[in-house]
Amino acid sequence: MSSLLKISEAGTLALHAAALLAANSQKHLSVHDIAVTLHASEHHLAKVLQRLTKAGIVVSVRGPKGGFLLAKPPENFSLLEVFEAMEGPIGEPKCLLSLETCAVGRCMMGDAFVQINDLIRDRLKNANLSQFKRC
């Protein structure tokens, strides 16, 4: 079944890996450990973590006891920051047919896509990684 909301695999991996790092904030997690937990490709996950490192969301620690950690406490990162580190800024929704002016006179969806877009942006902005910390 199809879904209206589409998030890339990289975006999904970034959100889940960051949540996993928040839940395990007291220890380093390796690419392998995260990939096994998320049932993901280590190679793809390594690229995602590299981008999150470049964005300043995670830090990489080398060595046998190394791995990845969040760069700051989980409450300092919104899900929107993590998402946009992978996907870029959430833009305004466009015409389903990529037209400047609707061929049928007005958009059949009205402002629904704008409202949904704003809802998702606000939800990601107002949620932070501390929600995934273990007690």
CATH topology of the domain at 9-89 and 128-132: Arc Repressor Mutant, subunit A
Largest sheet strand order? 1-2
Q: Name the helicity range.
A: 40-55%
Order of helices and strands: HHHEEHH
Task: Give the termini distance in whole angstroms.
Answer: 36 Å
Shape: elongated
Question: What can you see in these coordinates?
Answer:
This protein has five helices and two strands, in the order αααββαα. The chain has helices at residues 9-23, 31-38, 42-54, 79-87, 112-126; strands at 58-61, 67-70. Strand 1 (58-61) and strand 2 form a beta hairpin. The model has no long low-confidence stretch (mean pLDDT 88).
Question: Which helices and strands, and how do they pair?
Answer:
Elements: H1 9-23, H2 31-38, H3 42-54, E1 58-61, E2 67-70, H4 79-87, H5 112-126
Q: Nutshell version of this structure?
A:
The protein has 135 residues and is mainly alpha-helical. The chain has a domain at 9-89 and 128-132: Winged helix-like DNA-binding domain superfamily/Winged helix DNA-binding domain (Arc Repressor Mutant, subunit A).
Write out key terms for the chains shown.
Arc Repressor Mutant, subunit A, mainly alpha, 135 residues, 5 helices
